[in-house]
Write a structure and sequence with these properties.
The chain has helices spanning about 1-45, 55-65, 130-135, 145-155, 170-175; strands spanning about 75-80, 80-85, 90, 95-105, 115-120, 140, 165-170. By secondary structure, the chain is of the alpha+beta class. Strands 1, 2, 3, 4, 5, 6 and 7 form a seven-stranded antiparallel β-sheet that branches.
């Protein structure tokens, strides 16, 4: 009888430890996801009185790489833009983050580079928060966006589920636009 009680306690202790480890892993993932989103938002946030962004898109993208959300290399580079498809779920302003873009120049290939970054999300609910961010940070929202066509235009072959997608572009040209144009 004593052996049975010991086995039962051990099993209970193992289950408790497994539950705690699972809860810790979930909490850590949520904190990581929030930190990544925060870094990306910083990269899209406009410095007051300028057309420059507060954060660095390269650093935000490297953080997503370190955590395994995107590959070490872009899925495609077209003109001056790198395109990164997400490999695992991440959120952005309450929506599902699908694609991160970064536009920059390493070598001049012709007109016209517009440094900055952008994201495409699968919309869950309202885009009001996304629209408000775009207005406040002098970004451009395309809603809805035909994600399959947009990816095809830059030679990315992938299957994404049907749904409502929207893109947020926070590049130099977006910040330089007259507010009445937005």
């Amino acid at each position: 009888m004593t052996e049975w009680k010991r086995t039962r306690r051990l099993t209970g202790s193992l289950l408790l430890a497994a539950c705690c480890a699972s809860a810790f892993a979930a909490a850590t993932a949520a904190v990581t996801d929030t930190g990544l989103e925060s870094g990306l938002l910083q990269a899209l946030h406009l410095k007051k009185g300028t057309t420059q962004r507060v954060g660095t898109s390269g650093k935000a993208i490297q953080a997503y790489m370190r955590e395994g959300y995107i590959g070490k290399r872009p899925d495609q580079r077209a003109d001056y833009t790198d395109y990164y498809l997400l490999k695992k779920p991440a959120s952005f302003m309450g929506h599902e983050l699908v694609l991160i873009e970064e536009e920059y120049i390493t070598q001049y290939i012709g007109c016209c580079v517009s440094p900055g970054a952008g994201v495409t999300v699968k919309v869950h609910g309202s885009t009001q928060k996304l629209q408000a961010f775009a207005r406040a940070q002098r970004c451009t929202v395309t809603d809805p966006v035909d994600i399959r066509r947009a990816l095809n235009d830059v030679a990315i072959q992938t299957r994404l589920p049907k749904g409502h997608y929207a893109s947020l572009s926070c590049r130099e040209r977006d910040a330089g636009r007259d507010e009445s144009d937005q």
